[in-house]
């Protein structure tokens, strides 16, 4: 089997088996080049204008780290914040990484539907076939939150011969892990996939540069995924998917500046189910419907109360529920496509707080709900024997947000407000016969106000005076206009692929707090601006020399030219937690028996607020480089051993001040696969 390079992302390359015909190989190549995130319909990645990066299963296997965040930051050069205690978030194209709340600037999908996870550390990659990263605005297709970009996680769907893998491993910090996966056809028309995993880090990790133990950093995670699929007639198919994540006794150390006084622990659950049905309504018409329910729960326990050490107590609970449905119709007219659809989603967020004696108290913010109904149209036009592709479309969203009656919180009045928003996008892509291409897009995106900003009302009695905080029903969504332009080149026979893209984003109507007298409210008053250059490149020496192996050198970067937000009074400041540059580079090898990846990640300076210093000054983080190594040996057809070295050179670094990352870690695993061919 042989795979090709996809837009500069390095993929495995093997010699085609003797029995494979030229048509078989070409069909597989075409399949590997197809992506769905850019248009909500399957399209060749070389022909679409939007900037798409693909992280395939081989890359995932050879990248250290089992969470979605680890894969993204080491393969897609995005901004990341990761805390000890299983907390993580991302930012794309100059937007600050976000790790909580139902309103963000980067949208995460699983098989095209919202992931139902506010904390990306709960999304693992055990059952992932590939990850598609759309950089740039996508509200014209997906609505709110797709301002910086969209990450679409495509899970495994094995409808062929049954396969299974069992993995066990052990490594640094007294960590043991086990994984199981299986899937394939049960009978004609019926197939399944199942996976389960467990990872138990029983000791605290050590910080880099032969540092001390980082107290309160042990954890246990468990996960499972199940899919059942069935063909219903010649063109119709149904898939039902279920997923479960559990984090147990997850220790949270707090800022290192405070020692152990802010430590605690928590339990996290994330689970959901969805069904997808697709089929043809006619010769040129494909229809699909998706329904989903997901739930995220968290229970927190603390060792401190207002800065004072206390016996561990149950301090906080939260739960978020997503309910949704998607209807999509794709009509093909010659080489052109018209994709239309309707999306519905309701999100409900609840929280509960407790005193040290276990009694309930009012949470910081009221419970809230958000209803979204939207319709969209995307068109894909192909001309000049598909060398020229034009896309154009838009989406109309209706939102209703509400603050809900919240037990023990009596200082506010539940309320609701609604608004609408229209998001257009267009793009052009031209492929030259020599392998070069030009691509450009222009689009708008938005992030909605939350319920408190639109409909909240609360009163706080301080020193004999009633202070009022109220929402503003006239708020507009924060919105942005982005354009990008890029050029690329790809020649599989030369083993060469690269793409360079410039982007510019103008952000308007940012929502800020304004206080006048005794009343605080919200208004659209300030803007922001981001611009930068994204580069992808890879060179496979094995293809050039026609080896039956791949020796691939790769490079992926985001260079921020400018990422600033306006302040009151006409001043500006750098957007915090966005690095000046992020580089991923290294070498990847695969000959069928041995495979490996020697990877480097370099992150430039970034600005932040030091919340532990008097006056909360702005500080600049130092740059750092971290190296990882994964080496695998496949033998006797069914066996594999793999060695993983995280932070190979024991770098002492952090992605968020006060929360250092682990130093060098070594893991060894053994995998048994069956059956053999």
SSE topology sketch:
Elements: H1 22-33, E1 34-35, E2 43-44, E3 51-56, H2 57-61, H3 68-75, E4 79-83, E5 87-91, E6 106-110, E7 113-114, E8 128-135, H4 139-142, E9 149-155, E10 163-171, E11 175-187, E12 190-201, E13 219-232, E14 236-252, E15 264-282, E16 285-305, E17 308-333, E18 336-354, E19 360-361, E20 368-383, E21 388-403, E22 416-431, E23 436-447, H5 451-455, E24 457-462, E25 465-470, E26 478-491, E27 496-516, E28 519-540, H6 541-544, E29 550-566, E30 572-574, E31 581-590, E32 594-603, E33 606-609, E34 618-621, E35 624-635, E36 639-646, E37 665-674
Parallel strand pairs: 6-9, 25-28
Antiparallel strand pairs: 1-2, 3-8, 4-5, 6-7, 8-9, 10-11, 10-37, 11-12, 12-13, 13-14, 14-15, 15-16, 16-17, 17-18, 18-19, 18-20, 20-21, 21-22, 22-23, 23-26, 24-25, 26-27, 27-28, 28-29, 29-30, 29-31, 31-32, 32-35, 33-34, 35-36, 36-37
Which features characterize this protein?
single chain, 677 residues, mainly beta, Maltoporin, Chain A, 22-stranded antiparallel β-barrel, 6 helices, 37 strands, 59% strand, disordered N terminus
Question: Could you characterize the architecture of this molecule?
Answer:
The protein has 677 residues and is mainly β. It has a single domain (22-674), classed as Maltoporin, Chain A (Beta Barrel). It has a 22-stranded antiparallel beta barrel. Strands 3-8-9-6-7 form a 5-stranded mixed sheet. It has a two-stranded antiparallel ribbon with strand order 1-2. Mean pLDDT is 90; it is low at 1-31.
* Helix amount: under 10%
Beta-sheet strand percentage? over 45%
* Number of continuous helical runs: 6
How many distinct folded domains? Answer: 1
Count every beta strand, where a strand is a DSSP E run of 2 or more residues: 37
Mean pLDDT: 90
CATH class: Mainly Beta
The major β-sheet equals: 22 strands, antiparallel, barrel
- Look at the structure and name the CATH superfamily: TonB-dependent receptor, beta-barrel domain
What coarse outline follows from CA principal-axis ratios?
A: globular
Structural class: mainly beta
């Amino acid at each position: 089997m042989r795979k090709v390079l996809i837009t500069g992302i390095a993929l495995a390359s093997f010699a085609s088996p003797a029995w494979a015909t030229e048509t078989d190989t070409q069909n597989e190549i075409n399949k590997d080049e197809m992506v769905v995130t850019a248009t909500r319909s399957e399209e060749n990645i070389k022909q679409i204008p939007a900037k798409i990066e693909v992280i395939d299963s081989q890359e995932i296997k050879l990248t250290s780290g089992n969470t979605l965040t680890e894969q993204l930051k080491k393969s897609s050069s995005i901004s990341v914040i990761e805390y000890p205690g299983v907390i993580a978030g991302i930012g794309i194209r100059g937007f600050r990484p976000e790790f909580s709340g139902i309103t963000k600037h980067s949208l995460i999908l699983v098989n095209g539907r919202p992931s139902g996870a506010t904390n990306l550390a709960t999304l693992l990659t055990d059952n992932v076939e590939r990850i598609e990263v759309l950089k740039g605005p996508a509200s014209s297709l997906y609505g709110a939150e797709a301002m910086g970009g969209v990450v679409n996680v495509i899970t495994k769907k094995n409808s062929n011969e049954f396969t299974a893998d069992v993995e066990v491993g052990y490594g640094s910090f007294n960590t043991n892990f086990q994984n199981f996966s299986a899937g394939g056809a049960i009978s004609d028309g019926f197939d399944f996939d199942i996976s389960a995993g467990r990872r138990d880090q029983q000791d605290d990790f050590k910080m880099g540069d032969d540092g001390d133990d980082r107290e309160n950093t042990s954890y246990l995670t468990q996960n499972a995924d199940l899919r059942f699929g069935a063909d219903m007639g010649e063109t119709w198919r149904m898939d039902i998917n279920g997923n479960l994540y559990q984090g147990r006794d997850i220790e949270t150390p707090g800022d290192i500046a405070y020692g152990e006084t802010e430590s605690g622990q928590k339990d996290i659950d994330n689970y959901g189910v969805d069904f997808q049905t697709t089929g043809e309504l006619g010769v040129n018409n494909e229809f699909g419907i998706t329904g989903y329910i997901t739930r995220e729960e968290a229970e927190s326990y603390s060792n401190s109360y207002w800065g004072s050490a206390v016996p561990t107590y149950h301090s906080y609970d939260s739960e978020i529920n997503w309910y949704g449905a998607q209807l999509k119709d794709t009509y093909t007219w010659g080489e052109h496509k018209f994709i239309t659809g309707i999306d519905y989603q309701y999100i409900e967020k609840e929280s509960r707080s407790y005193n040290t004696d276990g009694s309930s108290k009012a949470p910081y913010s009221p419970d809230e709900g958000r209803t979204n109904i939207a319709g969209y149209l995307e068109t894909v036009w192909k001309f000049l024997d598909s060398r020229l592709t034009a896309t154009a479309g838009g989406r109309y969203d209706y939102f209703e947000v509400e603050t809900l009656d919240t037990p023990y919180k009596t200082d506010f009045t539940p309320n609701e407000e609604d608004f609408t928003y229209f998001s257009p996008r267009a793009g052009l892509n031209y492929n030259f016969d020599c392998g070069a291409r030009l691509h450009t897009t222009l689009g708008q995106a938005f992030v909605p106000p939350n319920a408190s900003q639109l409909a909240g009302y609360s009163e706080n009695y301080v020193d004999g005076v009633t202070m009022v905080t109220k929402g503003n029903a006239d708020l507009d969504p924060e919105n942005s206009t982005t354009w990008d332009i890029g050029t690329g080149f790809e020649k599989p026979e030369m083993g060469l692929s690269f793409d360079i893209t410039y982007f510019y984003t103008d952000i308007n109507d940012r929502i800020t707090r304004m206080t006048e007298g005794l009343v605080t409210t919200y208004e659209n008053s300030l803007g922001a601006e981001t611009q930068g250059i994204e580069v992808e490149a890879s060179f496979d020496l094995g293809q050039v020399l026609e080896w039956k192996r791949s020796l691939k050198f790769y490079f992926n970067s985001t260079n921020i030219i400018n990422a600033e937000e306006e302040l009151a009074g006409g001043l500006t400041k750098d957007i915090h937690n966005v690095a000046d540059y992020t580089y991923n580079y290294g070498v990847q090898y695969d000959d069928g028996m041995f495979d490996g990846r020697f990877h480097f990640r370099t992150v430039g300076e970034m600005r932040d607020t030091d919340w532990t210093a008097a006056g909360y000054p702005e500080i600049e983080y130092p740059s750092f480089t971290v190296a990882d190594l994964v080496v695998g040996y496949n033998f006797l057809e069914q066996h594999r051993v793999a060695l993983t070295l995280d932070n190979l050179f024991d770098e002492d670094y952090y992605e968020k001040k006060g929360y250092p990352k682990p130093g060098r870690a070594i893991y060894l695993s053994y995998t048994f696969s069956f059956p053999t061919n």
